[in-house]
């Protein structure tokens, strides 16, 4: 059946050129994965309207062989500039094939697949805020290092396509990811953490002017086309808001839990609550909320100043019936460490400081969230232990 499918797909006509897909060598991957057909083609020079026409022709051509619900069509573009032109209705000629070893971003416009686990990953944790400027990326990087120090294998996806900052925080701004023999992108490593960021694929000065489907395609590639083998936790540093990236992630990947970050003031909590409600409506378990920048501790006198107010997140978790994971205060070194590519939690000299202890507390609570529930006999034993004062 697969040969017949390939034959019919090869006879499809590209509406942009009037030529067959076989003559243009468009198909990059056609395979059956169980009952599902996965077909991927090069969409260079094809506009969104022409792409929709092609997808309709694919469904018509294969309707007697594969159920429509079992057809997943993916598209790739070898040059983002060509995608921009296609989006503007200015089709261009397919570029010549480039080298295969350096990793490339595929600006995909694929259909939404069923949720699936990411190969090689134990648990996936989404970290969101609903609002920008609350220190989420710095928090994510330092939580990753904290969990690593607690014996876990950690990976991080920098999903903030418009403002990728993890290459700077981890001190890897000049890195260029490579791909292995299986065409999987090899994640960059720093301080024992594997991570991937869109910042590796663009110049720092270049703005990213991409639409929702393209953003979802990049995140999908970071989830499923990167070699994440051997991870206990994969943290996803989400962009602000409740838009395309968040929905693409939750619709395509089996995410195990979410952490919501907010600063204490009311204006930040308004958006953080929206982020929490989004996770709830999408049936994503919320591990809890963290109050970031809860206070500033003076380097000279040690006095604690509540610059953004006090106790806002603690009140919010009561209203939303969520867990409170802790408060992370501000220290100058927390900021300078991110700027220098030397994250705070990599510096053992800070071990006795409040920020260090706060991250350790959050790390333990995150890990405990995923501990298996006790069997009934142990729960009963725990009950009697409490009565006898043996369980502290």
Under the CATH scheme, which architecture of the largest domain would be assigned? Answer: 3-Layer(aba) Sandwich
Q: How far is the N terminus from the C terminus?
A: 64 Å
Count of DSSP E strands? 12
Content-based structural category: alpha/beta
Strand percentage lies at 15-25%
Q: What's the helix and strand layout?
A:
Layout: H1 2-10, E1 27-33, E2 36-42, H2 48-62, E3 71-76, H3 80-87, E4 121-128, H4 136-149, E5 154-158, H5 166-169, E6 188-190, E7 193-197, H6 212-224, E8 231-237, H7 244-252, E9 257-262, H8 266-281, E10 286-297, E11 304-305, H9 312-320, E12 324-330, H10 332-340, H11 354-369, H12 376-387
Parallel strand pairs: 2-3, 4-8, 4-9, 5-7, 5-8, 9-10, 10-12
Antiparallel strand pairs: 1-2, 6-7, 10-11
Helix pairs in contact: 4-11, 6-7, 8-9
Architecture overview:
The chain folds into 2 domains: 2-87, GMP Synthetase, Chain A, domain 3, CATH 3.30.300.130; 121-369, P-loop containing nucleotide triphosphate hydrolases (Rossmann fold). Helix 4 (136-149) crosses helix 11 (354-369). The protein has helices at residues 2-10, 48-62, 80-87, 136-149, 166-169, 212-224, 244-252, 266-281, 312-320, 332-340, 354-369, 376-387, and strands at 27-33, 36-42, 71-76, 121-128, 154-158, 188-190, 193-197, 231-237, 257-262, 286-297, 304-305, 324-330. 34% of the residues lie in helices and 19% in strands. It has 392 residues and is of the alpha/beta class. It starts with a helix and ends in a 5-residue tail after the last helix.
